[in-house]
Each structure stands twice: as C-alpha cells, then as structure tokens.
Amino acid sequence: MSTATANRDITDAILKITGLHKAVPVYYVNATVESVDISSRTCIVTAVDGNVEFEIPGVMLMAVVDDGILIEPVVGSTVKVIYSQNVEPFVCQYSEVANITLTATTLIKLNDGSYGGLIRIADLTAKNNNLVSQIQAELTKIATGISSAGGTYTPGTLSTFNQSDYENTNVKHGN
Q: pLDDT tier at 13 (50, 70, 90 boundaries)?
C-alpha cells in the first residue's frame, strides 16, 4: 500500500469516527455589494477571504422570489454571505439597507397591533380638510342668521390639517 493511500485511509477513518465523513463545509464571508437586481432578487458581491478577493454572482436576497421579506442592500455596502456546495449563496447580514419590502400577502403586524391598520394619509388629510371647510361654511351661515336677527357674531377661521404635521416619512406602504 502506498503512503498516499494509507494517509487517505487514515483520514477517512478519522472522519468516520468523528461523524464528519458526510459533512459539507459551509462558508461565511464578508463581501462588498457590487450591484443589485431587484427583479431577480439577487445581487453580485465581491467577497474577501484573507487576501483573496473573488466575485460571487447570483447571491440571493430572499429564500424564494416574492416570498416574504426582500431586503435590498446599498451598493457599496458590506454584507455577510453564506454558501456551500449544496446551498446557493445568500445574504444573511447587512451593514446598510436601501429598502425593505414585505411581499407576503398575509397579515403584517407591528408590535402588538393595538393601533389598528395603517392609513392612506393623503386621503385622510383631504377628508379632514373637507370637514373643516364644511364646518367653516356652517359657522358663516350661523353668523349670517345672527346678524339678520340684529345680533353680532363673527366666526373665527378654522385651521386646516397639514399632512406633514403627523406623517411618519420613515414608513411607507401601498397596495
């Protein structure tokens, strides 16, 4: 038996004894985001492993296209990528995030959900300002009636709602 064969047999025996003979190594690398393709839910990164840099194309940003949460990294930011011979590369940590998109069609609950659903703030502001306008018109009619009866009453001017006074611009939602 050659030395190489004996060494291989010893290595195989050690792997079997330790239970690692069927193990597949998993790699975890720091990488810089080079580009992002939102339509395919992937990005291209340049990984740094020691002094060696190598490009990894097709790094997944979510488990399945349109299934859950899509986190879009900022181009030029650092991400952590996991991959193996059996697992496609995917991003597991982000240093900077450009957007987070929830693609799930099920209930989305933030904290305990006690505030109810999110509102369409532009529509609500328009309806509130419409009510202010109607109340102002009614106050003017009341003042006219009081004046025609010999009294005096001057209604004040009601202020309108400004969406920017109560909108959280850090949270956006749609359909």
A: confident
Residue 18 lies in a domain: no
Per the structure, how many domains does the chain have?
2
∠ at Cα 35 (32, 39), nearest 5°? Answer: 135
Residue 98, phi then psi, degrees to nearest 5? -85, -45
Integer CA distances (angstroms), 62 to 58, 59, 93, 104, in order: 11, 9, 12, 12
pTM of the shown model: 0.61
> Is 7 part of any domain?
no
Q: Are residues 88 and 32 in the same domain?
A: yes
Same structural domain for residues 30 and 89? yes
pLDDT class of 59 with cuts at 50, 70, 90:
very high
**pLDDT tens track for 15-54:** 788 877 777 888 899 999 999 999 999 999 999 877 889 9
Domain range for 97: 25-102
The answer to whether the beta carbons of residues 153 and 142 sit under 8 Å apart is: yes
Residue 145 domain flag: yes
